[in-house]
Amino acid sequence: MSxxxxxxxxxxxxxxxxxxxxxxxxxxxxxxxxxxxxxxxxKAPDQTTVIALDGLTxxxxxxxxxxxxxxxxxxxxxxxxxFAGLSFPTSGSISIDGQPIKEPGLDRGIVFxxxxxxxxxxxxxxxxxxxxxxxxxxxxxxKKVKELIKMVGLEGFENHYPYQLSGGMKxxxxxxxxxxxxxxxxxxxxxxxxxxxxxxxxxxxxxxxxRDQTGKSILFITxxxxxxxxLADRVAVLTARPGxxxxxxxxxxxxxxxxxxxxxRSDPLFSETRHLLWTLLRxxxxxxxxxxxxxxxxx
Length: 299
Fold this sequence. Notes:
By secondary structure, the chain is an alpha/beta fold.
């Protein structure tokens, strides 16, 4: 599979100029370990140390769509939080463009599974919120918000409140709001996890269009193997806790094919990649379950 993967990806990268050299790294994780200290209870009253990530190393190229795939509790969200500057490694380093991450910044936009829209604001006002609170000129921010609302397919819903929107519409509004300050990197934590399958597939396609229009680097967390294959340039499979990179898989389907095919999920390469990822993930899911069951017995 690896030879076929390289051939297909190079053909696409040369045609659309998406190829980036190994030195063109946007995000870098270097031998990161993250520990949490947990107060004991029940039969184990002493404080314990939980190792969420252990010596993890990862690179994300400029303009790349990289998906993190792993069992529950393997540290995916912990890693994303450190990229966001919301927490920090116990050891090792995380950097953007070679500069250590020390705090949150407008160069990173975060989209969560929960939409986090303000219920008292309209769609337009929710999308405009960051610009308004940073004192952007009125004319400039109105123009920007209108462009983004059109990009995410919410024209005609500008004056609707969140309770008047479907789940997919709410997530579109959340994505548009994140794009208002033009972050270089999108950090997305299972943004489509709560949606039904049809809306989920539609938003996946829209996200690929947004990625191609903006050229942003995207780090995306999911539990769905199929979602990972459809979206990613590469998929990083994590082990059960403590999380490490088990293997990184190049997805051998071009960006153009995903957007132009009527049913790319029926492509043999799609099925082959999905099977490979399932094979890698299956053992880690079993290990993760064993860890949970062992913890339950201790308690």
